[in-house]
Amino acid sequence: MAAEIVPSADKMKAVYVNEWSAIGAVADSISFGEVPSPAAPKKADVLVSVKAASISGDDVGLMQDTFAGGTASATPKPSAAKPLVGGMDYAGVVLAVGPDCKKLKVGDRVCGIMKRYEAQAGTWAEKTTAPEKDVCKIEDDSISFVDAAAVTMGVFVDQAMIKLALKKLSSGSPRCLVIGASGALGTVLLQLLKKYKGHVTAICSGKNAETVRSMGADEVIDYTTQPFGEQLATAEKYAVVFDLVGGTEVQSEAAPLIERGGMYITAVGRVKGWQFRKLTTCEFMGALCYMMRAGCDCCGKYTWAFAGPYPPLTAEIWKETALESGARAAIAEEVPFAEAPIREAYAAQAHTTQGGGWS
What we know:
This protein has twelve helices and 15 strands. It has 359 residues and is α/β, with parallel strands linked by helices. Strand 12 (238-243), helix 9 (248-254) and strand 13 (258-266) form a beta-alpha-beta unit.
């Protein structure tokens, strides 16, 4: 969402909640109004005027009383006295720097991803604060604030997936399968995979086929017409499967398509939609145990790996995967920083992600 900044001495506009939202009710639970502005930055902190921020599936989970929000969050329980401002990623301009800052100065264009599990500030507001070490300077004026905010999470997660698969990707012309290819993560991943000159098959709905082709997919499979596993049953096997949907059902469907010695890399895990609901003890322990043995191979056929990088987005990752590669996220919609369009955008995002993560 794009923000028109109207500076205020002690108050700022923001999107927030005063209590954890009920599951599936975030669009109706959020408030749009004034909250206290951040204090002047101390030590090595930076005050940023937010020009753009994104609305993602993770943002939905973090505002709800779910595993990602209420259960596992280190953020204090929201209240009227201490509202929780939403949002994780941002792009904007430095308004002020603390006395110990060494790299950034007032007026610098910057972007980043907040550590929400460490109770860092939200980004759906006119201003936010972050440690200087967690803020990336946007050196290239060719990228807009909107594109910078939209692509941060994609390059951050996707570079971690590619790092895990680097040996496979660097050997010959690998065949890769991207499941959930038309979202913000998937469209960025397709562009980053071009570097390795292999064959990339994208799984998404037919309505998004042209988008993923334009991002670099060599082949598109519409999962809405027939299970993708059936459609690819006779195809040549894949060296790497990148999973952006999650769940044991998706992994089971993809497993027969992986060549012996190949890799299955997931950014979500074996519990589908864990961000958007409470987990049973069995679900949590089962997923944890599976992740703890992530280095093993599955019955000797392929290696399973979880790509779950933790912020911040570093300057090195930002420069290599966003600026130098030219990768950009597919943006579903750009909306102004106003109540009605933000509620509509949030409802649309919640419907997509809580419906299973496919697009």
